Amino acid sequence: MTSIGVAGLGRMGAAIAQRLVETGHAVTVWNRTAARAETLRAMGATVASSPSELAAACDVVITILTDAAAIDEVYRGPAGLLTAAVAGKLFVEMSTVRPETEEQLSAAVAGKGADFVECPVGGTVGPALKGQLIGFAGGDAAAIDRARPVLETLCRRFDHVGPVGAGSSFKLAINLPLAIYWQALGEAFALCRHLPIDRAKMIEIFQETSGAPNVLRARGATVAQALDGKSLGSGLFDCDGMRKDLRTMIAEAQSRGFDLPVAAATLEVFDEASAAGWGARDCMEMPTYVVSGAGRT
After folding, report:
1. How many angstroms separate the CA atoms of 255 and 234, rounded?
2. Cα distance between residue 19 and residue 37, in whole Å
3. From the CB of residue 257, how many other CB atoms can be counted at a distance below 10 Å?
4. Which of 7, 65, 74, 166 is most buried per CB count within 10 Å?
5. What pLDDT, in 10s, does the model give residues 11-61?
6. What is the pTM of this model?
């Protein structure tokens, strides 16, 4: 049986590890905040004391981390993944970062004699638990074929979109319209909030229009609850996480010689919302922030 390690147990990392445990894999986990691993230990996962120990114990290592700094620490730190004897192992990196981060990491992993695939994913905790993520894989064909059994356990679809770095480009691209949509939906509601129509009915109408994305059709009732003033609690994909992604998109575009003016304007609103205490709220609450008259409205 292939042993799989998961380093990074935020919401998505923990859900991915749980999915692997529940589908019968031998799973070892590690997280900087060790307490987050205890639920997975109770499910049957082994808990490593360091990234190095995890890498030594596993044939395949999945990482899903906050940003480039976290990747550097987990891979190259004093007890990092690459301090173990990793020749012949496979690393699958799923973080949302700039392509250059993955390209540099791929070279470091290759220098240790291991294979590397980047595969950032689209989806939140619910799809992760059901193996319904969408993956954007970058790397050489042989490494991706080697990763295929694991990725097929986690994803309802994954595509080989190019060499290492291509997956990151694609992930930033698919997140950009979503970020903009939450702001745009709030502005749209601001235009009709004076009408005597309840929020659920308004959402129902918006769901039937040509401008409605899949997320509104799937989560419209939740958005309506937020517009009615109900807190959604801890965000599945929070506003601060989207702020990080927007900054990454803008930096990547600038490195390639162009600007993202709409994304930059959206980031300003997300920054204002975070400063007003909305950073940990789900992105689905951003229309509420806009339509309520806060910030720009």
Report:
1. 34
2. 14
3. 6
4. 7
5. 999 999 999 999 999 999 999 999 999 999 999 999 999 999 999 999 999
6. 0.92
